[in-house]
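> run fold GNAT family N-acetyltransferase
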Amino acid sequence: MDFKIEKAMLKDVGIAADLFNQYRVFYRQAPDYETCKAFIHDRLRQEQSHIFLVYVEGRPAGFVQLYELYHYIRLGKQWLLSDLFVHPDFRGRGLSVALIDRAKQWCDETGACGLMLETEKTNDIGNKLYPRCGFEYDGAHNYYYWWK
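> ok
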């Protein structure tokens, strides 16, 4: 299969926003392309996230979005693999693994110590994919949220 992965730039906001909107719908959120577009635009413009888009035969097929964090034990930069999505038409072709590999490469390029992620316990696909890609499950921690 012919695919390529490119780092998203401001010119790619519409493509990234469309995929991001579909990703949010997958997680039971109401579709809202315009708000997604503004959100992605702000993240890219302010260099607050890094997005890699995968294209299959020129068609946008998925993305991974990374946010910079710092690890208290490793005392270095790490990347939060916040969002990973492959359009249903392109699933089962190894694109998620390719996007994760690109995120790992980004760690090398930026001197980061690694990647971390969180996913829902019910995300059967992700919970099988991540260990296959070398991620270790951390059952010692709970994640809590506070929303204003």
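Residues 66 and 82 are 6 Å apart (CA to CA).
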